[in-house]
TrEMBL record:
<feature type="signal peptide">
    <location>
        <begin position="1"/>
        <end position="26"/>
    </location>
</feature>
<feature type="region of interest" description="Disordered">
    <location>
        <begin position="120"/>
        <end position="154"/>
    </location>
</feature>
<keyword id="KW-0732">Signal</keyword>
<dbReference type="InterPro" id="IPR021844">
    <property type="entry name" value="Integr_conj_element_PFL4704"/>
</dbReference>
<dbReference type="Pfam" id="PF11920">
    <property type="entry name" value="DUF3438"/>
</dbReference>
<protein>
    <submittedName>
        <fullName>TIGR03749 family integrating conjugative element protein</fullName>
    </submittedName>
</protein>
Length: 285
């Protein structure tokens, strides 16, 4: 049964999230899973890739020229400006601290390329975080499932979690305010969740999750698979034992458009999203 509290995080919080995290500027999320990430660059317009890591950039000879591609790196972000069109080129980024390598396939186009900022999300670095926070989750299970707890500042925990998750994915890292007791946790979810929005032609991909006082927020990327239809998003269409949901954008554009992807922040109480989805098996993680 879907127990989603659609109204809890609606209205004012949606406006707050959009102004604080995005300032009305859309961001494309790419999930690094050791496969090269495809990035199109619009000729003549700068595009930003945010990794929140200090990286070295390795360019192939064909584009290692500022007259072809200008590359700047600062504050965990890469600033790319293609000055002329070029075919797909493999670019290598290496984390200065860990030596981890991320691969991008860059293509510069005269037409049809988005100039949205890109946020790269990395796999969980600390799977043990979910175990460390299990006691806080179990302590909350005996309470009222429909009552939102309050943080030390008096703000409901679901609101705190949703705001923090949106800022973590969309805002510069220097602007994110730490929250005591809030930890990023392992999601233990499959790469795709067809049971989350079964009535729509949408691919739902989990991105990251955070936990506080037994509550969990999970960011899920939604991508439209239909090239001929755009549609509004309604939290009541989400399936599962969910407390609340907040969409970063109110609608999805047709597949292939710059508006064909958004993120939904789903809050669950006393259980992870993996256990809250339909057909989930077993007890709480």
């Amino acid at each position: 049964m879907n127990r989603l509290k659609a109204s809890l995080l609606g209205g004012g919080l949606c406006v707050s999230l959009l102004s604080v995290a995005l300032q009305a500027h859309a961001v494309e999320i790419l999930h690094w899973d050791r496969k090269p990430l495809d990035v199109d660059l619009p000729v003549g317009t700068e595009r930003v890739i945010v990794l929140d890591r200090n990286v070295r950039v390795g360019l192939p000879r064909d584009i290692a020229d500022p007259d072809t591609l200008r590359v700047q790196s600062a504050g965990g972000a890469i600033y790319l400006k293609a000055n002329q069109a070029f075919d797909t080129q493999r670019v290598r980024l290496q984390d200065v601290e860990t030596n981890e390598v991320v691969l991008f396939d860059l293509t510069a186009k005269e037409d049809g390329a988005s100039d949205e900022d890109i946020q790269v999300v990395f796999p969980e670095d600390n799977p043990g975080d979910s175990t460390a926070s299990a006691s806080a989750q179990s302590d909350d299970e005996g309470g009222d499932h429909d009552r939102a707890g309050a943080s030390a500042g008096g703000t409901p925990v679901p609101v705190v979690l949703t705001r923090f998750a949106a800022q973590s994915l969309y805002a510069p890292s220097r602007t994110i305010e730490p929250v005591k007791g809030l930890n990023r946790v392992a999601m233990q979810l499959p790469d795709s969740m067809p049971s989350l929005l079964p009535s729509l032609p949408v691919t739902a991909t989990p991105v990251a999750a955070w936990k506080l006082d037994g509550w969990t927020v999970t960011a899920v990327k939604l991508s439209n698979r239909d090239p001929s239809r755009a549609f509004e998003l309604d939290p009541r269409w989400l399936q599962g034992d969910l407390y609340s949901a907040t969409f970063m954008h109110p609608s999805l554009g047709r597949r292939g458009s710059v508006e064909d992807t958004t993120t939904v922040f789903i809050v669950t109480n006393g259980l992870s999203l993996a256990k809250a989805l339909p057909l989930s098996q077993g007890g709480d993680s």
